Structures are given as C-alpha cells and as structure tokens.
Amino acid sequence: MSLYATFRRQVREALSDTFRSLRHRNFRYYWLGQLPAATGRWMYQVAQGWLVLQLENSALVLGTVGALQWLPVLLLSVVSGAIAERYPKRSVLLVTQSLLMTWTALLGILTLTGLVKVWHVMVIAFLTGLVNAFDQPTRQSFVVELVGRDDLPNGIALNSSLFNTARVVGPSLGGFIIKAVGIGPTFLIDAAAYLPFIVGLLMMRDLPLPRSDGRRVGEQVVEGLRYIRTTPDIFWPIALVGVVSLFSINWNVLLPLMAKNVLKLGADGLGLLYGALGIGSLAGSLHMARDHRPFTTARVALYALLFTLFEALVAALSRVEYVMVLLAVAGYYSIRFTSGSNALVQINVPDHLRVRVMSVYYLVFGGSSPFGNELVGAMAHVAGPRGALLFSSLIGGAFALWVLGRDRRAHEEANSGAP
After folding, report:
1. Would you state the torsion angle of the CA atoms of residues 70, 105, 92, 352, taken in this order, to the nearest 10 degrees?
2. What single-letter DSSP state applies at residue 261?
3. d(Cα 360, Cα 307) in Å, to the nearest integer?
4. I need a surface site. Which of 72, 87, 230, 257 has the fewest CB within 10 A?
5. Domains (ranges, CATH) in the chain?
C-alpha cells in the first residue's frame, strides 16, 4: 500500500471515529439543525451587548442584563427538570425554540423602529432565561436518546463542537452584520436561524416516550438532589462547574468591556475576540470527540485550572493579536473542562434521573451567571475590566486547584486502605 493510500485510510478512520455519532439519523437532524440556531445565538450575544452599550455605556447595566437572562434558570431549573421529564423531549424543544424565535424577532422589531429602551432589553433577557430554564436541561439530556450510552461522550463532544463552530462564526458574522446593516437586522436574522432546528426536530422518528412514576414533582426533585449529594463523581464536577462559572466564565460582560475600553475596538473587533475564543473551544471539543480516555474529576479539575491560568494572562496584555491567541488557548481548556464535566456527570447518572440531574448541572452552570455577571460588572466598575478579569480568574483557579488536590488525596487514602 502506498504512503498516500495509507494516509487517506488513516484520515478516513480518524474522521469516522471523530464523527461516529452522526451515524444515528435523529442525531444528524439534531446536530445539523442546531448549527444555524447556535450561530444566531452568538450573533445575538454580540448584538445585545452592543445595543446595551449604545443605550447605556455602563458596566453595571450590562451586568444586569446578563443577570436577568440567567435569573430564571436560578429560580426554576431544578423544578423545570422534573416537569420536563413528564413530556416528550422533542415536544418541549419545539415549544422552547418557537418562543426564543419570537422574543428575538420582537427585539429586532423594537430596534428597527427606534422604540427600543434598556428596559425592553431587560424584559426580553428575562423571558429568554425563563424559556432556557426548560430548554437547556432537556437539550442536554436529549443526546443520550439520540445516540445511546456507548456514543454518549462522542455525542456530547460533537454537540460542543457545533456550538463552538457557532462561537467562531457567529460573533464575527454578527459584528460585521451590525457594522453593515445595523443591530435590528441582526436580531431578525437570528430569529430566522431557529427555523432549521425546528424543522429538524419535526423530522425525527422513533423517539422514546417519557415514563412517569406518578410521584409528585417535589418528591422527584428530592430524589435527584439526594443522588447528586451521595455520588462524588457527580457532586464534585457540578460544584467545580458552579464555582468556575460564577467567577471565571463571564465573557458576555467582560469581553465587550475589554474590547471597548481597553483594546479600543469596535463591534467587528469584539466579534473577532469572540471568534478567537470559539476557535480554541472548537479545537477542544474536536479533540474531546477523539479522546477515548475515561473522564475523572481530576481531569476536569486540571482543565479548569489551565483555563483560569490563561484567562488571567488575557488581563495582562494590551496587544490585540496576543489577546486573541490567549483567548483561543483559554477557549480550548474551557471546553475541555465544561464538556468533560458534562460527560462525567451523564456517564454516572441513571436514565430515569437524567433530566433532573442535568437540570441541577445547568442550574449551577448557567444559574451562577446572575451573581457572576453582577459581581464582575461591579468589580469592573471599581477596578476596571483588567482587574475584574484577573481577580475572577484567580478565584476560579484556586478552587480548581483545591478540588484537584482533594481528589488525589481521596484516591491515595482509598489505595492505602485497600487490602
């Protein structure tokens, strides 16, 4: 066999292994349909942040909008998971995607007509968060129904790769569209981007039906929380995700402030910063898709530590090209951390508790953002974007280091006590 033929065979095998979950028909519809919707959501983040800065050039207002978008997640996620378990996941997602499309189109119309005020943005941010409280746990737990347990880590990684492809394309595209035609049309394009995902959901076949045990929602919630508390390989990854998300994953507040007030960039420049972050995240998710090593708490803690280290370095530099490189590396370790934590939790949870446990996961991942957005917004108001970014990354890194040490000590004690 020639060298070229060997190379082609190895490439085919690598691609087949990396994208093996796409062999499942329903997952293909799910995966391909989400790409335009996810791209539109990143365009939305750029447009929303820039609109707020145009209306009120205030770090506190920007932080408040971010907080309102995540506040319903904090209030409802645990209960919403138990409720969503009672209905077919596809039906839940059809409702949530239709509502998100409606809120986005409404904000676009308000912006185009010149009627938009900051309070409009705040109300729509809250409504978006309300829908996401049901959408995200359902979406996270839907993957196993589409690919099965054997391909679950790969399905999660491919899902992450899709969202990080959107993170590369969406912010840059959003920045250029804002510059070319304005913020209002950007919101309307985002609204239209939901349609392919809705069509993909409608085309799915042979999906399992939910099985309800007839118990009250409160009893189901307690059962899920008890399982999390008594399972270390679920509890500690979720705790780590909560702390790092609270302090260190607040790009929607700090990146616009860094772009405008430190790096002196416009909307297109902000899009490039988001794009650099997304390139690294995409690389991390594709690497994870080929990684067959078992996930452990120590691994995800190490990824969290490396993420916060490179995030801290971003705060120290003023050259745009250097900042973009560091953002890419931070994005790589960020997605290895968050997707690895997601996979570790889902691998260790039984199917009948999946939506409830993932609702708690999403609660600490996204629900910490109201506090984190307000916290880093206030920190940036006092110490500037650099100070806020540096301090928040150091706190997240310190907790990751503590979890890493604790996990290693626990394993050493277990091994020393073994016969």
Report:
1. -30
2. I
3. 23
4. 230
5. 19-204+217-417 (1.20.1250.20)
What span, in angstroms and rounded, lies between the C-alpha atoms of 297 and 293? 13
Token pair 């959501």 in the structure block, residue: 41
Q: Give the E-state strand segments of 275-362 in sequence order.
A: none
Describe the chain by its helix, strand, coil percentages, rounded to 5.
85, 0, 15
DSSP letters spanning 371-386: HHHHHHHHHHHHHHHH
Q: Is 358 exposed, middle or buried (0-12, 13-18, 19+ CB in 10 A)?
A: buried
In the prediction, which pLDDT does 11 show?
57
Question: Measured between alpha carbons, how far is 419 from 416 in angstroms, rounded to an integer?
Answer: 8
Quote the CA–CA distance of 389 and 5 in Å, as a whole number: 49
CB atoms within 10 A of CB 87: 15
Amino acid, res. 302:
L
* Rounded Cα–Cα distance for residues 160 and 145 (Å): 17
Distance (Å, whole) CA 317 – CA 418: 49
What is the maximal distance between C-alpha atoms in the chain? 74
Per-residue pLDDT reduced to its tens digit, 118-157: 889 999 999 998 898 888 888 877 887 888 777 787 888 8
Question: Which of 158, 165, 3 is closest to 11 using CA atoms?
Answer: 3
Least Cα distance to 308 among 328, 283, 270, 334 occurs for 334
Burial class of residue 158, CB neighbours in 10 A (0-12, 13-18, 19+): buried
What distance in Å separates the CA atoms of residue 201 and residue 195, rounded to the nearest whole number? 10
Least confident of 64-73, 176-185, 409-418: 409-418
Contact 273, 179 (CB under 8 A): no
